[in-house]
Q: What sequence folds into this?
């Protein structure tokens, strides 16, 4: 297999983008990535588009074909990738494999979702369509509901506390204020969301024991990357980023069928595969973007990828070990919690943020000094389809 | 404008003093302190300056809510409505939200509007709760008639309390009306109505000294900016 580099990245600010269609967002993010890659003339071999809900929410399918035409990239090959909230990383993986195989040399991967044009209730229902159609969905389960049950179990088994979850909310929303691409740019205050009796209204229970600020927002947004061969990246004569390793694993569709529902086996396996391929270990990682659709997931994933032992992730977060300047900075973009979670875009956006980190292009208040290795974890379903990437900076 | 006071006495409804609403202070999610207090009739021109830029924001029905609130407050200011009141929320003296209503009779209240000028901090929820608190705990009413004009309002009031549907028409017209009863209010109070009294003097003095208001562009950005507030 050939090594694959990331030549260009682009993203739109996430949030509520009433004025943009799904295709507008995908096109703008793609153009930014193409410009960043120095491919303003739009020459790519193939386009992979990650999207989960276009067919349901916008009544629009064949999105990749439409994007190729919109960007005048004809006759590039085009495919839409749907893999739930892990669609973004799946599209990056498919683009990467296409180049690694030697079939294509340059691939555009874009991920986008427009979720705010329906009510929050309908968006929640749309996301819940990834649950088991007979064993879960008919009983009214939603992803926040599932995360609430998971959190309760995790608290009982691994000692996670509300204080640990609050630490994640505070950290990620603070980072959101430093990220112009973040949906939520509002710092939280511990008193206001936890200590004060007024927190009962400010931060109400959403899915016990999770509260409002334990959940990511429903967002619109898009992100894109241009993948290429390492030889192409070298021609730019400046540091570049390679996909040093990737891993993907699946788990049972229903949480109830897992021997231990708190054991996110697919996260562990995906991360192990990615580290093995990269010939690196968790302690080599400078910065990580983990899929914190719920605060508990950042804690659980930080343990399952090997940053901390089981039961230590929450304590580490509360101790500041996952903040900028800490032992392993996590979600310096604000994560899904603050950057937002347009489901099809998220996995691509995680890669974009890590590329900025590894190229040392972020402002001081978000940049990990001398970052060389980054990890992303994109979590589909409730851990039933997970992808991890290890990205690495290469000096010119 | 010259006023014929003889005719005015025919047109003006009786002006019945409204019971006082003791100010309270709420700590918001971002740690800021919001003072909730009763506005006086003389405050209306200043309040309207903050309502005006919202008249032209279609998003989330701000235009309809603002236009009707503007008319209701103007009618109160110029003596064309009976038994109206207005509560406001202020952060650092700045006006961040407005709620109003009136008394249908001694036992039944009529909730008018809730306008959050700063968003993302549940200011609307806090102020709507203050309005219900005023009707039940301070005026001593038994029921409040409510109608929602925006989906956000619907989610905040009908679902969070939850209210009871009623066939009694609301004077704003619109969809079916909803009723908050004393019983429903008391059940919901511990999780929806918060605030500390008395308000520390420096905070209250700041709020009472002057109603500050953001410029039109800032208000529009807060409500209708590209971000998802």
A:
């Amino acid at each position: 297999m050939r090594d694959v580099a990331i030549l260009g990245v682009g993203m739109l600010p996430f949030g509520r983008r009433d004025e943009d269609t799904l295709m507008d967002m995908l096109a703008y993010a793609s153009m930014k990535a193409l410009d960043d890659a120095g491919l303003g003339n739009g020459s790519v071999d193939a386009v992979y588009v990650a999207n989960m809900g276009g067919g349901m929410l916008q009544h629009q399918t064949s999105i990749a074909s439409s994007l190729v035409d919109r960007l005048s990239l004809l006759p590039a090959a085009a495919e839409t990738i749907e893999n739930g909230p892990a669609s973004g990383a799946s599209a990056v993986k498919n683009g990467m494999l296409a180049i690694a195989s030697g079939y294509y040399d340059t691939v555009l991967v874009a991920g986008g979702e427009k979720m705010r044009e329906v009510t929050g209730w309908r968006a929640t229902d749309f996301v819940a369509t990834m649950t088991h159609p007979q064993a879960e969905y008919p009983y009214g389960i939603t992803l926040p509901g599932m995360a609430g049950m998971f959190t309760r179990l995790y608290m009982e088994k691994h000692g996670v506390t509300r204080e640990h979850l609050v630490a994640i909310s505070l950290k990620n929303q603070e980072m959101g204020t430093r990220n112009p691409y973040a949906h939520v740019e509002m710092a939280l205050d511990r008193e206001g969301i936890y200590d004060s009796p007024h927190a009962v209204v400010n931060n109400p229970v959403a899915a016990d024991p999770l509260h409002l600020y334990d959940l990511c927002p429903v967002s619109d947004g898009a992100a894109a990357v241009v993948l290429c061969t390492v030889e192409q990246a070298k021609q730019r004569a400046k540091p570049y980023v390679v996909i040093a390793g990737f891993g993907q694993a699946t788990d049972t569709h229903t949480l109830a069928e897992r021997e231990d529902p708190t054991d996110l086996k697919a996260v562990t396996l995906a991360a192990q595969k990615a580290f093995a391929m990269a010939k690196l270990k968790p302690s080599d990682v400078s910065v990580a973007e983990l899929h914190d659709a719920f605060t508990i997931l950042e804690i659980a994933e930080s343990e399952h990828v090997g940053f901390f032992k089981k039961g230590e992730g929450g304590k580490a977060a509360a101790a500041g070990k996952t903040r900028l300047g800490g032992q392993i900075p996590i979600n310096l973009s604000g994560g899904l919690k603050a950057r937002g979670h347009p489901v099809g875009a998220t996995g691509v956006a995680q890669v974009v943020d890590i590329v900025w980190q590894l190229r040392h292009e972020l402002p001081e208040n978000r940049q990990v000094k001398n970052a060389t290795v980054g990890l992303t974890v994109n979590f589909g379903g409730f851990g039933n389809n997970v992808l991890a990437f290890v990205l690495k900076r290469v000096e010119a | 404008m010259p006023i014929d006071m003889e005719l005015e006495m025919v047109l003006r409804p009786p002006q019945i003093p409204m019971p006082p609403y003791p100010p309270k202070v709420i700590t918001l999610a971002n740690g800021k302190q919001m003072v909730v207090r009763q506005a006086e009739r003389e405050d209306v021109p200043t309040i309207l300056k903050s309502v005006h830029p919202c008249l032209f924001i279609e998003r989330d029905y701000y235009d309809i809510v603002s236009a009707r609130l503007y008319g209701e407050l103007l009618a109160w200011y110029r003596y064309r409505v009976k038994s109206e009141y207005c509560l406001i929320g202020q952060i650092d003296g700045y006006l961040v939200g407005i709620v109003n209503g009136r008394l249908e009779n001694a036992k039944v209240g009529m909730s008018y509007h809730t306008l959050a000028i700063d968003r993302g901090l549940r200011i609307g929820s806090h102020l709507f709760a203050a309005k219900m608190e005023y009707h039940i705990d301070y005026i001593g009413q038994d029921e409040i008639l409510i109608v929602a004009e925006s989906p956000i309002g619907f989610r905040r009031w009908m679902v969070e309390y939850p209210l009871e549907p009623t066939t009694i028409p609301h004077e704003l017209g619109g969809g079916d009306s909803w009723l908050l009863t004393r019983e429903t209010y008391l059940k919901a109070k511990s999780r929806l109505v918060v605030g500390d009294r008395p308000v520390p003097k420096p905070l209250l003095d700041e709020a009472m000294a002057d109603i500050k208001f953001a410029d039109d562009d800032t208000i529009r950005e807060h409500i209708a900016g590209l971000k998802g507030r």
User: Anything to note?
Assistant: Chain A has a mean pLDDT of 97. Chain A touches chain B at residues 13-19, 116, 119-120, 183-189, 191-193, 196-204, 213, 217, 219-220, 340 (CB under 8 Å). DSSP finds 15 helices and eleven strands in chain A. The CA atoms of residues 170 and 190 of chain A lie 7 Å apart.
